[in-house]
Amino acid sequence: MTEQATGVPHPHPRPRGGAPSSSTVEKDVTGAQSLIRSLEEVGADTVFGIPGGCILPAYDPLMDSSRVRHVLVRHEQGAGHAATGYAQATGKVGVCMATSGPGATNLVTPIADAHMDSVPLVAITGQVASRAIGTDAFQEADICGITMPITKHNFLVTDADEIPRTIAEAFHIAASGRPGPVLVDIAKDALQAKTTFTWPAPVELPGYRPVTKPHAKQIREAAKLISQARRPVLYVGGGVLKARATAELRVLAELTGAPVTTTLMALGAFPDSHPLHVGMPGMHGSVTAVTALQKADLIIALGARFDDRVTGKLDSFAPFAKVVHADIDPAEIGKNRTADVPIVGDAREVIADLIVAVQAEHEEGRAGDYRDWWTSLNRWRDTYPLGYDLPEDGSLSPQQVIQRIGELAPDGTVYTAGVGQHQMWASHFIRYEKPGTWLNSGGAGTMGYAVPAAMGAKAGLPGSTVWAIDGDGCFQMTNQELATCALNNIPIKVAIINNGALGMVRQWQTLFYNQRYSHTALHSGTVPTDGAAASQGTRVPDFVKLSEAMGCVGLRCENPEQLDAVIEKANSINDRPVVVDFIVHEDAMVWPMVAAGTSNDEVMAARGVRPDFGDGEDD
Asked: Nearest to residue 347, comparing CAs of 507, 239, 482, 266?
């Protein structure tokens, strides 16, 4: 089974690690020169970072490298998120670099973010000289200790001779198995010391053998359950995208005829427009997807981890379902939900083998009959579609803004999102038809992700349009990277969904805290509670002026009549970054919703609207 077999190839290659490209030996080089040569050997073409005392030796040979582009960011957090965006968009390992102490600790959030979302990332940090380690020297921090829980592995290098092997191993670990971040901390004296650069033989790590090929017996058991089920659901997680298994997924779905639900991290793994797709599950998922999992008698989980945002109250999740759980990380299987058929393996190989096993079941006359199931699914889909109401005062609806951005954007546009209401609306109202077009912070939920991630994605895919969908709260955390974009010819487009508040927090205050809006207003004056638009009160900062000051084009849209023209103008500008300040209605909420800690059976289609599905498990 190949991706080309269906005519839907993934746009990016699978990530790769440190396979040697030559047997070059270079004598009398510094550790820093050896580091840059090592990055060239593993195929790293872009590094996001900021120089500082302990990493400074590495910056001198960067001037001489013809294959490694360095992007000077304005904050190390921006470097980390940019490396993540680059990795998610291109399928290659993202690289960021920082100095010791606060430079390294500023990478902690993006490293944790990459760890939660299984992003292949190598973070290179400088460390104080080896003789000073442990003395509380100036700008010393035990970054290996700090990041131990949030990396796949990390290295402290004090010997210049070890740099090539360490870099090769770091890239191999980051890209293989379940992808994730690896930190390489290099002492300053190791960077300054003389060494001989020798690229290592193919990486062989004792004890590190990710299982990629699934067990045939488990595959056969899964295929039997699929053929016997009456209400199956394919529960697709981000692991399917990481495995480049989207073509295989489509074949399996169409072969079985089972409904497909794609998590927030898997949007684009299966076309939104496909009739088998029932939407995104979870706290703000579609009513049909949430209910399909609750009513299912079989869940086939592929590269998903039964996250609490999907399951709701865990002991009430999918009470009628047997579970087939396939994941490359054995630690995930059975962690939250017991698996009736556990399958350890790469999602691409698992799905390809499942296709063959299901075909064998069909040839024996055993095929699932899901007609009654689809009658229910289609009724729910028709009765409770995603939608929104336009504000009665004529102001901009945030959902409408995001929907029109998606409809007017060029084909193949890549979207990044911050975290909050705008993230959920972007997941709902933009259609994701292709893999690699939706990048967001799922597991960590990191505000400030969108702008630097868009920068990284655009750096990796300069021919693609990249829109960052951001909130006015998220934007103010990392907007300084607009200057980086302007100075490095990285023309991203940013939509600020400006409701004057920390929108998702305010929504919770509306629903659960008696409308006591404590410290969620981002503009001056009292937050209006009478349905007024967020344009009341002074907006500080003025995002248009701020954007222009950083070398970008700044636009503002305040009413629906301007909407299409402003978006089309933004799309027409490709020589500089563009920022559009969309002044939207403040009281818009994200629906559907399952309140935190409650059962998915209590999903609300809208405020005060709880769907009626009947009481029977066969409904």
From this structure: 239
Q: 572-581 pLDDT, tens per residue? A: 999 999 999 9
Contacts of 226 (CB under 8 A, 6+ apart): 232, 256, 258, 298, 300, 324, 354, 358, 361, 368
Residue 84 is which amino acid?
Answer: T
Positive or negative torsion for Cα 326, 327, 330, 333? negative
Q: What global pTM score does this model have?
A: 0.93
Same domain, 185 and 253: no
Spatial CB neighbours of 311, under 8 Å, sequence gap ≥ 6: 317, 318, 336, 337, 600
Contact in structure between 191 and 211 (CB atoms under 8 Å)? no
What would the pLDDT profile of 535-577 be if each residue is shown by its tens digit? 445 678 999 999 999 999 999 999 999 999 999 999 999 999 9
Strand order in the sheet with 322-327: 277-279, 260-262, 232-236, 298-302, 322-327, 341-344
Least confident piece of the model among 112-121, 264-273, 394-403, 509-518: 509-518
How many independent structural domains does the chain possess? 3
3-state secondary structure of 584: strand
Among 288, 282, 285, 286, CA closest to 305:
282
Residues marked as catalytic: 76, 138-139, 188, 504
Angle at 532 between CA 530 and CA 535, to 5 degrees: 150
Q: For position 20, what pLDDT does the model report?
A: 42
- Whether 249 and 193 map to the same domain: the answer is no
Query: Do 369 and 403 fall within a single domain?
Result: no
Residue ranges making up the domain that contains 342: 216-383
